[in-house]
Structures are given as C-alpha cells and as structure tokens.
Amino acid sequence: MNFILHLLLDAAVIFGLAYVMPQIEVKSFGTAVLIALLLGILNFFVGWLLAFPLNLVTFFLLTGLVRLVVTALLLKLIDKFMDSFTIHGFWPALVIALAVAVAGTLIDRSAPSEPMREAGHVAVLAPGR
C-alpha cells in the first residue's frame, strides 16, 4: 500500500512541477506514473551504483545531497529514453528530485510502514495520549 502511495504521489509531484515549470514537459498523468515507476526501479537497481562512489568521495558526510544528485541524474537518463518526458537542464531535474524526496518523507511520516515502526524510525503514540 505504501508503494502505491509513493508511486502516485511521485507522479503527482512530477506532473504538478511540469505544469508549473516551463523547463519540464510531461504529456499526461499516465506518463508521470510511468516516470515515477521507472525512477523507483532505477533508484533500486542502479542508484546505489552511482551513489556509492560519490559517497566514498564525500566520506559519507553528504549522503542526502548525493541521493538528490543521483535521482536528478536518473531523471535525466529517463528523459533521454522517453519522448513524452523532457527536462531542459540539470537544475529542473534537481528540483524534481528535491520535491520527490520531500513528498516521500511526508508520506513516510504520515503513513509509516510496519517495518519502519518495528525498526524504531517512527515514534508510535499510544492511543489516548
């Protein structure tokens, strides 16, 4: 369920930013959903390959910033493969990466998954407090 929320929210963020920013073009919401799906798959399979060497260079001190840059690079890669999605420049891709990261954080805070609760990443309040 959390995966579907993330996917739809990421698609909404991408589609909304395409509406607001003239440097980003997305043909339809279905395209935005496909972009969000590809971004999740690429982040899972390829993102760590890009992030690990960059994290080594920064001595793992800038991990969050490295993740944003890697996500922006993956968005530019998706841009090269899809005709219905265009990003003009690197900065708009970085804005999308930042917006997707913030939206994902808000979803994780408001609807944490069971593994997140068990690991102690999210405080669970007892009812009635």
Explain what you see:
The chain has one domain (2-119). Helix 1 (2-20) packs across helix 2 (29-57). 73% of the residues lie in helices and 5% in strands. The chain has a two-stranded antiparallel ribbon with strand order 1-2. The mean pLDDT is 88. The chain has 5 helices and 2 strands; from the N terminus they run αβααβαα. InterPro entries: Phage_holin_4_2.
SSE layout:
Elements: H1 2-20, E1 24-26, H2 29-57, H3 63-81, E2 85-87, H4 90-110, H5 114-119
Antiparallel strand pairs: 1-2
Helix pairs in contact: 1-2, 1-4, 2-3, 3-4
Keywords: Membrane, Transmembrane, Transmembrane helix
Protein name: Phage holin family protein
InterPro entries: Phage_holin_4_2
- Cross-sheet strand order for the largest sheet: 1-2
Radius of gyration: 16 Å
Largest sheet: 2 strands, antiparallel
Mean pLDDT across all amino acids: 88
Query: Tally the helices: what do you get?
Result: 5
Number of domains: 1
Kindly list the characteristics that best describe this protein.
mainly alpha, 2 strands, two-stranded antiparallel sheet, single chain, 5% strand, 129 residues, 73% helix
Question: Would you summarize the structure shown here?
Answer:
With 129 residues, the chain is mainly α. It has one domain.
